[in-house]
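Please decode residue identities from the backbone states below.
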């Protein structure tokens, strides 16, 4: 193949592909719809200087590609002083301790290893385990929040993640996760075009032509690195093969929202989960000090409806005030982050469907087209780490230019 590759989407997947292709000797051009890089990794600074992650926040244990990428680019990691996997549980029933959760995690791990059990969904597996009702409900809340969907619509294997993370302290990228996207984009210079949504991709065995509202660009290959709902919106000429379109149509997306509430005082680091309302809150360090800010994350459409997210932050703010009487909430400067209404995301992240497994059709090369994005990352789907892995994999599928 000759040497020009167009990359559609400057999230972590597209940028990882661009970095790898540049290294392999390709001439690259990245087209991004938004006026910034990073996609669902988006860091904002509040008026008081606090940093908030509107989307992706935690680097989870075992996400070693993102850690290696940060190190390679000279971008540091930032300790948060709290553990993503350890949350105080506030439920309606019997108190749930960390020991209860550890015992339940061990039971989940044993069940997932048991060849006699065909667990299907997370809900089905939880129903088969001998757990106290309040513990079962806490774990169900945990998985629904993290998977951003109901427990009966996510694979039982997601329980392993929820249960396993434990007490390991969490980190993110120093200066915010979007800093990693900026570092990946830095070598691109004017080979990155912002505000350039791609509407048409014409492809055959010889090459690719990509159209935006005011441009038409020819290349030898293209990487499509946009979320599945946006892949479905691009006009492919000819259409992608049926198995690819069907795989895209099968993908479900979870719904999640975040709320950030400035505090009048710096609190200690903490993490508290509200079982019934399906959200959790945390206070965390940036640098040496805990920020004067409480963050909240809610997952699943039912939870977002219950918290009235579609009508603004007020109901959720009142709920946080009830859950966290230990914190002095400021009334001004509350920020709500939603993704279902984001035109370039259309949801939070892909869902591992019960029994779904990896969908090979999503990562198949089609002539001169390859595909990236968290939704193509198999067990790492839904993560920044998966986005990076997918971009590297897609670049590898193109190999070196002639
Ligand atoms: P994106 O980041 O969505 O990038 C795709 C890019 O394509 C976007 O910039 C978009 O604007 C662009 N685009 C779309 N359509 C077009 C078009 N037609 N033409 C040109 N450009 C286009 N992950 C974690 O690891 N840890 C977390 O704690 C975590 N929390 C999360 C919390 C929330 C609320 C959300 C929403 C996500 C979270 N994630 C988390 C997931 C993580 O953000 C994603 O997995 C990852 O950032 C996806 O990267 P991507 O490159 O695949 O997609």
């Amino acid at each position: 193949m000759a040497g020009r590759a167009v990359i559609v989407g400057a999230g972590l997947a597209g940028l990882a592909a661009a970095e790898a292709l540049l290294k392999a000797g390709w001439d690259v051009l990245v087209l991004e719809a938004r006026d910034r890089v990073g996609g669902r990794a988006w860091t904002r600074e509040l008026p008081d200087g606090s940093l908030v992650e509107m989307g992706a926040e935690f680097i989870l244990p075992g996400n070693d590609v993102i850690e290696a990428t940060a190190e390679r680019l000279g971008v540091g990691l930032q300790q948060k002083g709290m553990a993503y996997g350890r949350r105080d549980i506030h439920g309606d029933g019997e108190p749930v301790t960390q020991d209860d959760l550890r015992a339940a995690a061990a039971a989940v791990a044993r069940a997932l290893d048991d060849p006699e059990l065909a667990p299907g969904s997370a809900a089905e597996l939880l129903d088969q385990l001998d757990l106290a009702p309040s513990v079962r409900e806490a774990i169900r809340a945990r998985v629904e929040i993290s998977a951003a969907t109901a427990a009966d619509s996510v694979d039982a294997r997601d329980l392993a993640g929820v249960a396993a993370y434990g007490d390991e302290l969490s980190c993110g990228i120093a200066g915010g996760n979007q800093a990693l996207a900026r570092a990946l984009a830095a070598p691109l210079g004017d080979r990155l075009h912002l505000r350039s949504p791609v509407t048409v991709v014409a492809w055959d065995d010889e090459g690719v032509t990509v159209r935006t509202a005011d441009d038409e660009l020819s290349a030898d290959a293209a990487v499509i690195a946009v979320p599945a709902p946006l892949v479905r919106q691009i006009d492919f000429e000819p259409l992608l093969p049926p198995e690819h379109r069907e795989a895209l149509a099968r993908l479900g997306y979870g719904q999640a929202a975040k709320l950030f509430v400035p505090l009048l005082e710096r609190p200690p680091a903490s993490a508290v989960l509200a079982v019934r309302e399906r959200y959790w809150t945390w206070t965390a360090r940036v640098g040496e000090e805990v920020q004067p800010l409480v963050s909240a994350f809610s997952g699943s459409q039912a939870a977002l409806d219950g918290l009235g997210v579609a009508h603004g932050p007020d109901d959720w703010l009142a709920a946080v005030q009830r859950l966290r009487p230990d914190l002095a909430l400021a009334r001004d400067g509350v920020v709500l982050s939603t993704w279902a209404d984001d035109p370039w995301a259309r949801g939070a992240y892909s869902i591992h469907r019960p029994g779904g497994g990896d969908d090979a059709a999503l990562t198949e090369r089609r002539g001169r087209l390859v595909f990236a994005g968290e939704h193509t990352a198999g067990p790492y789907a839904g993560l920044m780490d998966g986005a990076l892995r997918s971009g590297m994999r897609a670049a590898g599928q193109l190999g070196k230019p002639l």
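Observation: The pocket of flavin-adenine dinucleotide is lined by residues 8-14, 31-34, 39-41, 55-58, 197-198, 225-227, 230, 234, 256, 258, 339, 344-345, 348-349, 373-374, 382-387 (CB under 6 Å).
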